[in-house]
Amino acid sequence: MDRKISFIGVGPGDPDLLTIKALKKIESADVIFWADSLIPQKIINFSIEGSEKIKTSTLTLEKITSKMIERFNEGKTVIRLHDGDPCLYGAVKEQLEILKQKNIETEVIPGVSAFQVAAAYHQAELTIPDITQTIILTRAGGRTGMPEKESLEDLAKHKSSLCLYLSARHIKSSQKTLLEFYPPETKVIVGYRVSWDDGWTSVIELKDMEKFSLENELIRTTIYIVSPAINTIANRSNLYNPSYKHLFRGK
Ligand SMILES: C[S@@+](CC[C@H](N)C(=O)[O-])C[C@H]1O[C@@H](n2cnc3c(N)ncnc32)[C@H](O)[C@@H]1O
Predict the structure, then answer these.
(1) Residue whose CA is closest, atom 12 of ligand 1?
(2) Which ligand 1 atom sits closest to the C-alpha of 90?
(3) Residue 42 is part of which domain span?
(4) What CATH number does the domain containing 122 carry?
(5) CA separation for the pair 201, 250 (Å, rounded)
(6) Measured CA angle at 211 (ends 206, 216), to 5 deg
(7) Is the CB of 85 under 6 A from ligand 1?
(8) What is the pLDDT of residues 147-193, one digit of tens each?
(9) Integer Cα distance of 125 and 128 in angstroms
(10) Distance from the CA of 141 to the center of ligand 1, in angstroms?
């Protein structure tokens, strides 16, 4: 059997949002590397007794990957858990590249991302016909910075559904920029530690985003979804319209 290290998205917190694939991997791993600042212990509790659990929040890339390589070369089943989906702000690529250089095979298993859960809690469809058909996933620059062509100003011009990750500390400037393009009454879903036991979500208006964030002392693990599609009357889609023929409903 081909041996590989699995990078697994475990969702934003609630263990019930794990995929079956992720669960099976956690239940059979010898060594689990996990992003402990964003993954609850409850998920790690699915692991087998005697498995080694390595928290990564205090480790460097070099430390993480050298430990992974060491355990893998000892013949152990190694998995790496990331919160949400690994393709979003997961710092996954740099790990995969180091393992590739060592000729270690890898795979990535997707997970549910924070924005999807926050939207689901409010039964929001973020792509309503004639309102918006686009979702932008982005962040405030912060210490990582943003490519010039992706300034919030440029993205906000589309007035689409827009999800802000990693942005609670920069919400004042984000609100100011967004208000240049979206009406002040635009609805915003704010989710703090969504799907954790102490997590919550709320719907507010864009003009109150900064004030609300300050009042609730939001500085981390917060998702914002700004969208003209939240709390609107849905325009009818073509998909289920009797006058619209398609492959599965031709006649
Ligand atoms: C390093 S990024 C990782 C994102 C993750 N890969 C995902 O797909 O959700 C961390 C940011 O994701 C968002 N996030 C992750 N989990 C969250 C949760 N349970 N509730 C609210 N926001 C969350 C926050 O914006 C947080 O600052």
Answers:
(1) 165
(2) 6
(3) 5-109
(4) 3.30.950.10
(5) 41
(6) 110
(7) yes
(8) 999 999 999 999 999 999 999 999 999 999 999 999 999 999 999 99
(9) 6
(10) 15
